[in-house]
Amino acid sequence: MHAIDVVEIVGALTILVAFAAAQAGKLQQRTITYQLLNLLGSGVLATIAAVQQSWGFLLLEGSWAVISLLGLLNLLRREKAD
């Protein structure tokens, strides 16, 4: 197994942990923690997809990262306003 494989697995696990925790009722989706986990995991996977020129995977993970980033920024703006 190469180092890139380990990084890729960690990125995927980051997203899966957030999703599983939300499904189990342990983590709310509209939280900074949830959005950060998704942003970090999808950002790692999008970077790997770009380097490997895996365009479909880049579209999926890049979109996931952008959506997570927007959600995170929205949450941070709300916290700052309160």
From TrEMBL:
Keywords: Membrane, Transmembrane, Transmembrane helix. Pfam families: CBU_0592. This is CBU-0592-like domain-containing protein. The keyword Transmembrane applies. Residues 4-78 form the CBU-0592-like domain. The chain crosses the membrane at residues 6-25, 32-51, 57-76. InterPro entries: CBU_0592-like (IPR058058).
